[in-house]
Amino acid sequence: MSIYDFKVETVAGNEVSMEEYKGKVLIIANTASKCGFTPQYEDLQKLYSKYQEGGLEILGFPCNQFANQEPGSSQDAQSFCTINYGVEFPIFAKVDVRGENAIPLFKYLTSKAPHEGFKLEDPNEKLVHSVLSKRFPSFIHGNSIKWNFTKFVVGRDGKVLKRFEPHIQPGDMEAYIKEVL
């Protein structure tokens, strides 16, 4: 099984097979417009602009499961990305990425690239852990998505290669992206 076995919904409500992205390196991220990590859209767009011709595709999936940080419609999320960050990569329909109603693609991603635990010596990761502990203690355990802007890198063969947690900036992923391209 690979990500090419899944279908996702566009903002317009059309179903798209992930096979459309066969042969490309993908960054798949759950996103939100009202999150402290929202400025990552800018760096994701920079990566996209720099490496798209080399085979990189970035897919954004708005999600409202984390403190209601994506309250509007799918169209609102897409407009926000375009207007505020000049995003040119695809933004899909709003989805759930954790729990019973998580779309199959994200269930698959988290099964293939599980959460590796919190590295509390990292101040940014410690902050995320602290917020989750206080406000969303059930989010801490298991392999599920912990917060907005969890980023998965998928190889050209459709296999999940790596998971980058929300506090990892897209620019810090660049060396890895160059390596897998």
Automatic annotation (TrEMBL):
UniProt GO molecular function: peroxidase activity
Keywords of the record: Oxidoreductase, Peroxidase
Gene3D superfamilies: Glutaredoxin (3.40.30.10)
Domain Thioredoxin: 1-181
Keyword Oxidoreductase in record: yes
Entry-linked InterPro entries: Glutathione_peroxidase (IPR000889), GPX_AS (IPR029759), GPX_CS (IPR029760), Thioredoxin-like_sf (IPR036249), Thioredoxin_domain (IPR013766)
Annotated transmembrane regions: none
Active site (record annotation): 35
GO biological process: cellular response to oxidative stress
Protein family per UniProt: Belongs to the glutathione peroxidase family.
Annotated PANTHER family: GLUTATHIONE PEROXIDASE
Descriptive protein name: Glutathione peroxidase
Organism: Orenia marismortui
